[in-house]
Each structure stands twice: as structure tokens, then as C-alpha cells.
Specification:
The complex is a heterodimer of chains A (345) and B (650). Chain A has 345 residues and is of the alpha+beta class. Helices cover 26% and strands 29% of the residues of chain A. Chain A is built from six helices and 20 strands. A six-stranded antiparallel beta sheet of chain A has the order 1-8-7-11-12-3. Chain B is α+β, with helices and mostly antiparallel strands and 650 residues long. Chain B contains 23 helices and 19 strands. Classes of the chains: A alpha+beta (345), B alpha+beta (650). Chains A and B meet through helix 2, helix 3, strand 7 and strand 8 of A and helix 5, helix 6, helix 7 and helix 19 of B.
Chain lengths: 345, 650
């Protein structure tokens, strides 16, 4: 796969079409805005989406217009100099041009598209969307391109009766659910004189976690477990014994040797030096930092705590996760932070 | 500085090769330095791209462009005209390649290459040129396709194949446009400046040796398609320049008087035919003596020369009607008769004496004329293509000393004799005979058939044609040149007609060349209207042509579209599965649909219980299906049996 520049035209830049913004905040190219104006987006379709005859549009490219102008010149030359072979050349090129409409259109028609799952990313990274493009027909689909959310187009081929997983990445600027919305699949193959395209909106989404605060951020001190006796507190340091596995226990604490012998999941318990629990609480971060910075720090804490193999709980206004171990617990917390909306009033 | 990166070596090579191939034929007619300049620029460009070196700066290119324009201006001493445009275009295309770095530039180079193709047609529109240019269009189109490959790089063969299929699919549209696009007679502005160069053919002067030198040329003068075949070759006197003025050595047409009306009396049935005249850069349009009316865009002079309004610089086609036997000029104007008697004072004293002696002896003009012809017949005159050189007094020398000559010697001497005897006479040049091409039925008249004869004016008979050559060598008129001249004379290989297979091949090739001329190169507005009326268009107006063109292109595109879109998504079931599906449908109609979980054997077993009277058929179908689908059975007979069995059930 190769990246090229988006073949966008700014010819009609002055026209007042409502500017839709791309996820990274730039304006959409005017062609997309005109497209949105004529065919308003209707929301995501449930995949797979087959590009039927009525969805594939085709118009000449700039090169196509230049080609047409060349044909006019050739025709005038042929008339003026009575060149029979000039006529033949002109008409043959016209024939090639007209036939190329069919070829370009055919290159795109009837492909099927379906979304593939995107892995969550941290804000500041790139969200990688995967679109699976299927070619049900007997012809090669060559030099198709997908242009997602104003990013540069990604080119790919799809062999006959095969599928291609197309990866497009978009900068993930802020936390939350990133939906790239409607995208364009297009082609100018084989001769670049015509541009066939279809606008498709698949249910593409990618969770963007809040950006973890950079640098080393010390974890908050563990607190005494409320309502529990000191000595028997569950901690991190000395092995105490085994208990039955509960979902959410870190895989690192599973007694694999026992499991190998008995087929029973048991979790190793340790006693902490301080019989305390680690609570990551949004309220513990000074409000003066601002919400996003506080969420960044909270994110960093979650990552640090999980990396350290600590058991931790997390609190935000209206949300509380009981202390747990493990990656899935971390992901749940990060998810909650990513989608956190402050409660006003 | 722009970088050459971004264009793959293969694409760069394809562009350079396309431009080089399309420019190559120009090397023959452009100044040498332009060819060298173009080659140098192209090679440099390829080297820079291949080595990924930076391209020269804008300023350097601008300087090179200005220098090239100055060079062209110096070479041609003008910056206007066709050849100059071709030179400039060539130079600029080469320099554009030097500047090319972005995708848009490559597209401009591709379009320039297409455009350069047409400039080659200024110089040649032969079949060979057409094939060469078709190959170039193929290469350019393949280059254009390769430029669009953004992901992966396909094989060269695949790209060439794709380009070929694009061109092949473009051909029907091309044909529709070629036949139906309403043609306009050019030029649209000005007269294209063309250097026609020297062309062989008859001219308005005739000195001894002029016609015989033409006889060595196999070039086609014109081709003729007869509606009614002439009875005998001696009817085929193709009338050309008529020469009146003689200076003792050279005959000239002199002043040409336009005829207001033509008067003649036909003495036999007319001949209908169509002439396709090769360009000869003169105004004569040839027709069988005597043409009944002038072809379009031409007129008659008083001596029946048919003259085009402009020199014939393109192949033209005209319908003609002629009467081979006629009577004309009985009431010839005195002025013209006096002109037909004029002779230079001091020329040919012995000839004059001879004529005077005849005049003294015979009173009737006709008798003098016959006496002169019998002199040629009876005395040892030789008809040859290689007569001895004639000195100061050619007529006397020929008649009394060398006595060997070609048709122009005889026509010249005979006309002189007549005038000296007081009989109005003039020299007529043209062609005699021609050769029927058995392949396409066209009569080919070549330069080697050039001829000269005399017209004599007799009281109450008018102008009559007298061919003194016929008196010397009747074979020339009946059998053509090669049979008439001595074996030792040098004539063209073709005229000697010794190599039969070569002649046959020559005829076949001429038929191809002629069809090319008639249908490809000669398809002009007039021909278009005629063709369209012939194939049934009632009124070949441009409106009707446009309608027909739209319809034709629509149908072509529809057919092409169906062809191209056929296997786009259709996952066609193979015939075995299709037949089995039909079988399942048939069973479903009988109230026993196949359950999705049931294989063919289970289904057949259930059907045997459920519909006992079909037990055998069902079992057979199941066995055949299993054999065909899973057993690797490939025999088409088995498949046919299976299908028939299913069919019988329905």
C-alpha cells in the first residue's frame, strides 16, 4: 500500500457549503462539502456495503478535461490540414477516452466494504481503522483508494474473488469515541481521465483514551482499607495463601503450577506491608489543573498501577471501580476515563 | 531544483521511449540539430531519473528553451508555418520531459506525445506510417496505464494487454465517429503552408526527352474505376496539357483561354468513370478525350484542357463522362487557328521545304496529313526510349538524321510539318492506356504511360486527333510501352512484365493502397455524403449524421458495457449445481423440500420413502450428482444425462 496526495480540487473554494470538520479539526475539501450538500450523510450503514450501480459516481478528472482539450485541438488540426489519419487518431483517442469511463467505473462497482474492529489508542497517537474491501468479481480491482476523513488516500489492489484489509490511520487528537464518519472510496484507473467514487459510511469507531500525562507521576499513597482489620489486609509483598479465582484477578497471580496439577484456578494472595488499598481518585487531583490534565494524570496512574501489578480501584464522580488486578480492569478504567463527561451543577 | 524522485524508472523509461518513438520520424525532415538536441535531452533526462539526480533548474531550462526557439528561427528564418510548428513542438516536448517531476507533468507529457503523433501525418499518411503510429499510441496508452498503478507494479505484459484491450474497444467508437462525424471541408483558416517538393508528372512545357524520362517512373498518375468498360485500349487517350507555342525546340501551353461554353457532337456512346487523381501540384485534371463536362471545382479552356481552380495538392476523386469519338471545333475562332499555324522563323528549314513540297503537290489538308503519316510508317523511323541527343535544330535533325525518337519527337515533328504546310495543329500531352488491376478492377495509369500526340484542324471536320506514334509503332497503342520499345531500352522492371508473381503481388499491393486511398484518406465530406446515401441514409445532412452517430455510439457503449460488466460480481453457479438446484425446486413443488442439513444421499433416501413412484429416478439423480460434484466425474455426457434426468422430472 502506498500513500498519495488526495486528488482534491479547490476550484469551487469560494462556494458557501457548510464546512464539516475532519476529526483533527481541518476543513473538509470542497468536493466533499459539495458532496455532503447534494447527498447528505445518512449515518452509518450496517456492513457489508455493496457499491451498487447507483452508488458509484463518475466525472472527468483535470487530466480528463485536458485530454478532451487535446482532442479538440487534434480535431481542428485534422480539419485544417485535411488529415484523414488525423481524424482517425482523434476518433481513436476519443474512443479510448469513452471506453475508459466504463473501465474506471467497472473498477469500483460492486465491491463490498465492511468495517473491521479498531484497537483503542491514546490521544496523541494514530487511530488505525481497518476496512475490508471485497472483490466478488472475476476482474482485478487495481489502484482503488480510500480517503478517510481528509487524510491522504491509501491505494490498494484487490485480486479477483479476494478481499483486502485496508488500513487508514487518523491522528487521534482528543479522548472519546473517534468516528471518522463518511469516507470516499475512489479510483482513476486505468488511464486517469475519469474519477469514479462512492461515499460510504460504515460503522467505524475507535476509542481514544485520554493522553497519559508525560513523565514520571508518583502514584497516590494507598489508604487503609475501610472497615477491615489491619494485619489480615491483602497486600503485595508476602505470600499468604491461595484462594479460589475470581474474575478480574491478574493472570500474574494465578497459581499456574497448581492449575497444571489439578485443573483448578487458584489465586495467590499476598499480605501487604501496609494493609491498605490503592484508590485512584479524580478528586485527589487538584482542580486547578483543568479537567483534561486531571484525566491525563488519572490515565497515567491507571497505567502505572497496572504495570506495577498493583491492585487498584478508581473513582470519578458517578463512577467507581472496585479494586482489581489486571489488563481488563485497566482497560475498563481507561474506557471510563476516555468517555468521561463531567456532571455539571 | 526539483527532484526526479516520485517517478519510477519504468515509468520514466516508458515516457522517454514514447516521446522518442513519436519524434523519430521527424528526424528525416527537421534540421539535423533538432534531432540531435532532442536525442540529447531525452538521454540526459533518462540518465538523471535513473540515477535519481536532481533535474536542471528552471532558469537553465528557460535558457535552453529560448536558445532552441532562436535556433529554430535561425534555421527556418521564420517562426510561422507548419514545419516550424513541428520543430518547436518537438523541442518543447523534449524540454517538458526535462521539467517533468509531478504527476500532472507526466500527464502533460503523455498528451504532448499523443499530439506529436498527428504531426507525423503532415509528412506521410501511408499504411506503414499508420501502423507505426498505432504501435506508438499503444505504447503511450500503456504508459498512461502504468502511471496509474499506485499499489503494486503489474507485469509489462499485463499493462500492454490492458492498453491493447482499451484500444480495441475504442475502435468501434472510432469507426462510428470516422464514418458519421459530420465532416467539414478544410482548411478552416489560411492555406496550410506546405512544401510539396518536386513531383513527377506532365508539365506545361515539352522538350525532346521530357516524356521519355517520365516513362521510367512507375509512379501512379491516377486510377480509374469504369462504370462502362471501354471497348479498346486505343480509346484511352487521357487528355492533359495542350501545347501551342513552339520556339524551335520546346513546346509550351502559352496563354490559356477559358471556354465560356463547350461545343461538341458525340459520335458514339459515352463512357462513365471515376478518376482518383494523385496530387501533382499542377492544375490539369485528366479525363478521357473528350470530357463532356468539367469536374467540380474545375473549368475548361478553349482547347479542352480541364483545369482545377487550384493546383491539385491532394488526392482528388471526380466522376467523369467522356465521348471517345466526337466532333468539335468546326467553327473554331480565327484567332486560335492563326495561333495554331505560328512557327519560329528560322527553325527547321529542311522540314519547311518538305512541307512546302507536299503542299505544292496536294491540295487537300487531309491528304497532306496522310502523306506525313505514311512517311513515318514507311521510312525507317524507330520508336525508342533512348534516342540520340538532338542538337541545335532538333526537328530537322530528328526527321532527316537520327529518325529515332519517343512520342514527343514524333508529335513535335508532325505538328511542325502540319503547321509548315499551313494546316492548324497543336500538340496534346497526356497519358495513353493504363493497366487494369485484376484484384480490384481499377485501371492504373502510371507516369510511364505519359504520351504526346497531335491535333489537326481540318475544314468541316474540326479538330481531329492524329497520333504519329501509332504510325511508327502500332504496338504502343495496342499493347503498351514495354512491347513497343526495343528490348535493349531501359524501362522499369514492372513494365517488362517478366516476373509474373511480382506483378501479381504488385497488383495486390496496389489494390490495398488504392482502398486505403479511397476509403481512409479519401473519405472527405463529399465521399461521406455519398457513402451514407449509399447505405441508406435518406438525407445525409449533418443533423441526421449526428443522430446516427449518437445512436451508433449508444449501441456500441451498451454492448461494451454489457460485455465489461458481465462478470463483475456474478458468482455463477456451475451447471451441476444449477441442475441440482432445479431438482430441489421440483421436489419442493411436490411437497418435499430439501432440508438444509440434508446431503444428496439422505435427501434421496427420504424422497424414496415419501414419493415411492419416483424412487428410481431420484436415486439415479442423486448418484449422478454425487459422481459429478464429488466424484470428479468430468465426462460431458454424464453431465448431459444428469441434466436430462432433472429436466424430465419438471
Amino acid at each position: 500500500m502506498r500513500r498519495g496526495k488526495p486528488a482534491a480540487s479547490n476550484l469551487l473554494g469560494a462556494l458557501p457549503f457548510a464546512p464539516r470538520l475532519t476529526p483533527d479539526g481541518t476543513r473538509l475539501p470542497i468536493r466533499d462539502r459539495i458532496g455532503d450538500w447534494i447527498f447528505p450523510p445518512k449515518g452509518p450503514e450496517i456492513g457489508p456495503v455493496v457499491l451498487g450501480q447507483r452508488r458509484v459516481y463518475i466525472l472527468p478528472t483535470k487530466a480528463g478535461l485536458l485530454f478532451a482539450a487535446t482532442l479538440v485541438l487534434l480535431l481542428i488540426g485534422s480539419i485544417n490540414y485535411n488529415l484523414s489519419l488525423g481524424y482517425i487518431l482523434t476518433f481513436l483517442l476519443a474512443g479510448i477516452g469513452v471506453v475508459s469511463i466504463l473501465h474506471t467505473w467497472r473498477n469500483l462497482a460492486r465491491v463490498a466494504l465492511r468495517p473491521s474492529k479498531a484497537r483503542p489508542v491514546f490521544a496523541g497517537g494514530s487511530a488505525c481503522f481497518h476496512i475490508v474491501v471485497e472483490n466478488p468479481g472475476a476482474h482485478q480491482r487495481l489502484s482503488l483508494a480510500i480517503e478517510l476523513a481528509g487524510q491522504s488516500a491509501v491505494y490498494f489492489d484487490v485480486p479477483p474473488r479476494d478481499a483486502q484489509d485496508v488500513e487508514t490511520s487518523i491522528p487521534a487528537v482528543r479522548r472519546g469515541m473517534l468516528r471518522p464518519g463518511r469516507f470516499r472510496i475512489f479510483t482513476v484507473y486505468p488511464v486517469g481521465l475519469f474519477h469514479a467514487w462512492a461515499n460510504v459510511e460504515l460503522d467505524l469507531h475507535c476509542l481514544v483514551y485520554a493522553r497519559p500525562e508525560p513523565g514520571h507521576v508518583p502514584l497516590p499513597p494507598a489508604q487503609a482499607a475501610s472497615g477491615q482489620g489491619g494485619a489480615s489486609g491483602v497486600g503485595e509483598e508476602d505470600f499468604v495463601g491461595l484462594r479460589t479465582y475470581r474474575p478480574g484477578d491478574s493472570p500474574r497471580r494465578i497459581a499456574w503450577k497448581v492449575f497444571a496439577r489439578t485443573d483448578i484456578f487458584l489465586t495467590k494472595e499476598f499480605s501487604g506491608s501496609a494493609a491498605s488499598e490503592l484508590w485512584l481518585n479524580l478528586a485527589d487531583i487538584p482542580e486547578m489543573l483543568g479537567l483534561e490534565a486531571r484525566l491525563s494524570r488519572l490515565t497515567r496512574w491507571v497505567i502505572e498501577a497496572e504495570t506495577a501489578g498493583q491492585r487498584f480501584g478508581m473513582r470519578m464522580p458517578g463512577i467507581e471501580f472496585e479494586p482489581e488486578f489486571g489488563a481488563s480492569h485497566r482497560d475498563r478504567c481507561l474506557h471510563a476515563i476516555a468517555l468521561y463527561k463531567p456532571v455539571h451543577g | 531544483m526539483s527532484s526526479a524522485a516520485g517517478l519510477s524508472p519504468i515509468n520514466l523509461a516508458a515516457l522517454v521511449v514514447s516521446v522518442a518513438l513519436v519524434m523519430a520520424p521527424h528526424a528525416w525532415h527537421l534540421p539535423l540539430w533538432i534531432a540531435a538536441f532532442g536525442a540529447m535531452v531525452l538521454l540526459t533526462r533518462f540518465y538523471l531519473g535513473y540515477r535519481r539526480k536532481p533535474l536542471p533548474s528552471r532558469w537553465l531550462l528557460l535558457a535552453a528553451a529560448l536558445a532552441a526557439v532562436a535556433g529554430v528561427a535561425l534555421s527556418y528564418r521564420t517562426l510561422y508555418g507548419r514545419d516550424v510548428s513541428v520543430a518547436l513542438l518537438t523541442v518543447m516536448a523534449a524540454l517538458k520531459l526535462m521539467e517533468m517531476s509531478k504527476p500532472r507533468d507526466t500527464m502533460i507529457v503523455v498528451l504532448l506525445a499523443y499530439f506529436l503523433v498527428i504531426t507525423n501525418f503532415f509528412y506521410s499518411q501511408s499504411i506503414a506510417t499508420a501502423l507505426y503510429m498505432l504501435a506508438i499510441v499503444w505504447i503511450i496508452t500503456a504508459t498512461m496505464i502504468n502511471l496509474q498503478h499506485q499499489a503494486g507494479s503489474p507485469s509489462l505484459a499485463a499493462v500492454l494487454r490492458h492498453a491493447a484491450s482499451l484500444i480495441a474497444q475504442g475502435v468501434p467508437i472510432m469507426l462510428a465517429l470516422f464514418l458519421l462525424f459530420p465532416r467539414v471541408e478544410g482548411p478552416l483558416w489560411g492555406l496550410p503552408q506546405v512544401n510539396y517538393g518536386a513531383r513527377s508528372g506532365l508539365s506545361d512545357v515539352m522538350s525532346p526527352g521530357d516524356v521519355s524520362s517520365l516513362s521510367l517512373s512507375d509512379d501512379v498518375a491516377f486510377r480509374v474505376l469504369f462504370e462502362t468498360r471501354p471497348d479498346k485500349p486505343s480509346q484511352l487517350y487521357w487528355r492533359g496539357p495542350v501545347l501551342w507555342d513552339f520556339d524551335g525546340r520546346t513546346w509550351r501551353t502559352g496563354q490559356i483561354y477559358t471556354a465560356n461554353s463547350v461545343e461538341f457532337e458525340a459520335l458514339g456512346p459515352p463512357l462513365n468513370y471515376t478518376v482518383t487523381l494523385e496530387p501533382h501540384d499542377q492544375r490539369w485534371m485528366f479525363a478521357i478525350d473528350l470530357p463532356m463536362r468539367a469536374a467540380p471545382k474545375s473549368y475548361f479552356s478553349v482547347d479542352y484542357q480541364m483545369l482545377a481552380r487550384r493546383p491539385v495538392r491532394e488526392r482528388i476523386r471526380y466522376d467523369m463522362q467522356s465521348v471517345p469519338s466526337y466532333r468539335t471545333g468546326i467553327n473554331e475562332h480565327r484567332m486560335h487557328l492563326l495561333r495554331a499555324l505560328r512557327l519560329p522563323e528560322e527553325a527547321a528549314p529542311r522540314t519547311r521545304t518538305l512541307a512546302a513540297s507536299w503542299r505544292a503537290e496536294l491540295s487537300r489538308d487531309r491528304d497532306i496529313m496522310l502523306r506525313a503519316l505514311s512517311m513515318f510508317r514507311e521510312q525507317p523511323f524507330i520508336y525508342t526510349l533512348a534516342p540520340p541527343e538532338l542538337g541545335q535544330n532538333p526537328v530537322d535533325q530528328f526527321l532527316f538524321e537520327t529518325r529515332s525518337g519517343f512520342c514527343e519527337h514524333y508529335a513535335s515533328a508532325f505538328t511542325f510539318l502540319m503547321r509548315a504546310a499551313g494546316i492548324p495543329a497543336r500538340v496534346v500531352t497526356g497519358y495513353l492506356g493504363g493497366e487494369i488491376n485484376p484484384v480490384d478492377g481499377y485501371l492504373i495509369v502510371r507516369q510511364s504511360e505519359a504520351h504526346a500526340w497531335t491535333e489537326v484542324w481540318l475544314q468541316s471536320e474540326g479538330w481531329i486527333r492524329v497520333d504519329p506514334t501509332a504510325a511508327v509503332s502500332p504496338l504502343r497503342i495496342e499493347s503498351g510501352l514495354a512491347a513497343a520499345v526495343p528490348e535493349t531500352d531501359q524501362v522499369s522492371l514492372r513494365a517488362r512484365n517478366r516476373l509474373q508473381w511480382l506483378r501479381k503481388a504488385g497488383f495486390a499491393w496496389d489494390a490495398v493502397a488504392n482502398s486505403w486511398n479511397q476509403w481512409v484518406l479519401g473519405y472527405n465530406p463529399e465521399r461521406q455524403v455519398r457513402f451514407l446515401s449509399h447505405v441508406g441514409m435518406e438525407q445525409a445532412t449533418w443533423q441526421n449524421m449526428v443522430i446516427a452517430l449518437m445512436t451508433a455510439s449508444g449501441l456500441i457503449l451498451l454492448a461494451l458495457g454489457l460485455l465489461l460488466l458481465m462478470r463483475l460480481s456474478a458468482r455463477r453457479m456451475d451447471p451441476v449445481q444449477r441442475a441440482y438446484a432445479r431438482f430441489c425446486q421440483a421436489m419442493a413443488r411436490r411437497g418435499a423440500p430439501r432440508k438444509p442439513s440434508e446431503g444428496p444421499r439422505d435427501f434421496a433416501a427420504r424422497l424414496s420413502l415419501q414419493i415411492p413412484h419416483l424412487k428410481e429416478t431420484v436415486q439415479r439423480i442423486a448418484a449422478l450428482y454425487v459422481a459429478l460434484r464429488y466424484g470428479g466425474e468430468k465426462n460431458p455426457r454424464v453431465l448431459e444425462e444428469f441434466r436430462q434426468a432433472v429436466k424430465a422430472l419438471r
